[in-house]
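Q: Sequence in, structure out?
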Amino acid sequence: MGQTHKGAGNMVIVIVDDDGSFRNSIRRLVQSFGYGTMAFKSARQFLASESSRSCACLILDVHMPHIDGFQVAEQVLLRNCKLPIILQSGNVTESDIQRAQALRVLLLQKPVHPEKLQNTLKRLCRHIRKKKEPRPRRALPIRPARRRSVRVVGE
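A: Exactly. Output:
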């Protein structure tokens, strides 16, 4: 089961990385930005959970055993096509860039600069928040009903 940590807001960022030290450092960094986090040590563990349905954003390692980050992204996008996904890799290849573009997900080179990650999460979560917030309804003015005259044609 993943580790859950509440943040200041109600936005939860899910982190999936098989490298424990990197996973924990990203988790702490994301928490320092004010987000809640949920961390998983494997793609299988994450996919077995229902976390993709309730999180604001998903941060995935590209190179993980058994199932890579691209395969996880494909499965998640089938369930929740609106979920923003950030893939991270220490060794980004041209093939990785093409796959990320095809999936319409972000691909960042490890190590990610903290400010770049913070700005990326802010932008993605602002987009999510706008979709979730109900728009205020305006009261429409009441207009008197129009009188319509009925003409009978052909009599």
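The chain has a mean pLDDT of 83.
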